[in-house]
Design a protein that fits this description.
about 475 residues; alpha/beta; 15 helices; about 15% strand
């Protein structure tokens, strides 16, 4: 039976959906349809769910039924809604759409869009030669079944060597290769978190981590990051007070803020987690990307004496997102338990992809150095363009990673994202990085595209931001007071 969203529920999800003022003001029904499409794109509204009846939604939004009727008609015409007399209307996606690297559904012919929702680089030139070399190595594995739940030994040795070089002695038995960092997180959650378990996360944080936690029906609490990063007293106090089963942190060039956790806080965090009975999941996706010669503190797991720290990482950020290679670094017994849990999910990662990863890691110094130089130049171009065209926005220049976390001049992140889509710029608005629709004053801006595209995108955003104020401030309806 198809599930249904009630009118008051959809109204809460839609939030401030009204048409924006300016020269290109659209009718309310168009704005309402666009807002529903935005919910589908963000996966905040599931596919195949039945929408409320027109009259019910009109009452919940306090608008005319005619507006809702026209919006539903608009959604049917764009392929986002299917209706059958007597059965209602349910959400769908057009056949001409695909899943983009952000996880959002986008048109197949959307090639002119500047996509700032993606925080990942294009593939390095060394990828194709590495793939050819991997194909030549493949015959060594063809005599077996090809199932390696913890990963092929060459790759586990290479990853373990990387940890050891960072000051964390690691053996191949402590490494499990996964199909990307997100897959690593999912497997760890399956092992370490029972459905409904308590989890502490940063705010803001990585949206797909929130999605993975939601899939486990986790009870999520947050601790906020300031302009300077983590507030040690708040973070450690949250651990002591809530005593969650698990805490998820991104200490190296945090996504999305770019902050780097200091060494002393890392040590105190591990101690507080042990005292609270909390397992730490440390996402090291950006650890290879310090910029401007920034020195890195020791890995969080250096301070672990009780197998409380599970580190996850991968090759998506420094190498290529299309190479789905990630890993888990934990104690050897934990790795074996993860491998046993994995058998019920996907058995093992592709051998050929792992061989490609081995060849790329042998060239890591050359590849990563080039990536850092590229990112530093693109970051500086983006920062300069923002200072020139949008000086009211506040940005703390990160010392590594791939993203800026911009504080806007008003709570307009979602509205700006909808308007920017119309001028060919795709954004990931602030609320995607938090819970309950917060963070509307913030916007994540990755600097992974060429500098020319970043400058062009900022120019378009500046024009859109100017248009939002052309006809005065939008008149949002006041929220209901519930006492």
């Amino acid at each position: 039976m198809t599930s249904q969203v009630r009118g008051v529920q959809l109204a809460r999800l839609l939030g401030q959906w009204h048409a924006l003022p300016g020269r290109r003001r659209s009718p309310d029904y168009v704005a309402l349809a666009a807002a529903v499409r935005g919910l589908l794109a963000d996966a905040r509204l599931p596919l195949g769910i039945r929408l409320p009846a027109e009259r019910e939604l009109a009452e919940a939004l306090r608008i005319s039924r005619t507006t809702v009727t026209a919006a539903y008609r608009e959604l049917r015409e764009t392929g986002h809604l299917a209706s059958r007399r007597g059965a209602g209307s349910w959400t769908m996606l057009p056949g001409t759409h695909r899943v983009a690297s952000t996880g959002l559904w986008t048109p197949l012919d959307d090639r002119e869009m500047i996509d700032l929702g993606v925080a990942a680089l294009a593939a390095p030139p060394q990828l194709v030669p590495a793939a050819r070399a991997a194909a030549e190595d493949l015959p060594r594995y063809l005599g077996g079944a090809g199932y390696h739940p913890t990963g092929i030994i060459e790759l586990r040795e290479a990853v373990a060597r990387g940890y050891t070089e960072r000051g964390l002695a690691t053996s191949p038995e402590q490494i499990m290769v996964t199909s990307g960092t997100q897959h690593a997180l999912d497997l760890v959650l399956r092992l370490a978190l029972s459905p409904g378990g308590a989890v502490l996360v940063e705010s803001p944080t990585y949206p797909n981590a929130l999605a993975a936690l939601a899939a486990r029906r986790a009870r999520i609490t947050t601790h906020g990051l300031s302009d300077d990063g983590w507030d040690a007293d708040l973070l450690l106090g949250s651990l002591r007070q809530t005593r969650p089963k698990l805490a998820y942190v991104i200490p190296e060039f945090h996504n999305p803020t770019g902050h780097l956790m200091a060494a002393d806080l890392r040590e105190r965090l591990v101690g507080a987690a042990h005292a609270a009975g909390t397992d730490l999941v440390v996402d090291e996706s950006f650890v290879d990307l310090p910029l401007d010669g920034t020195p890195l503190p020791p890995p969080v797991a250096v301070f672990d004496r009780h197998s409380r720290v599970i580190s996850i990482g991968g090759m998506s950020k420094p190498y290529w997102g299309g190479l789905r290679i990630g890993w888990v670094r934990a104690s050897a017994p934990q790795v074996q338990r993860l491998a046993a849990a994995r058998v019920g999910v996907d058995m093992a990662s592709p051998v050929l992809d792992q061989l490609v990863a081995v060849h790329l890691l042998t060239q890591a110094p050359t590849i990563v150095a080039a990536r850092r130089a590229q990112l530093a130049a693109q970051r500086d171009a983006l920062v300069a363009a923002l200072a020139d065209r949008l000086p009211e926005w506040r940005v703390t220049v990160p010392r590594g990673g791939v993203t800026l976390w911009a504080e806007l001049d008003g709570p307009i992140s979602s509205a700006l994202a909808r308007a920017a889509e119309e001028v060919g710029v795709r954004l990931a608005p602030g609320p995607r990085f938090g819970l309950d629709g917060t963070l509307e004053r913030f916007l994540r801006l990755p600097f992974t595209l060429p500098a020319t595209e970043l400058v062009e995108a900022v120019g378009r955003l500046a024009a859109v931001r100017y248009d939002l104020d052309r006809a005065g401030r939008p008149q949002w309806r006041e929220p209901s007071v519930i006492a």
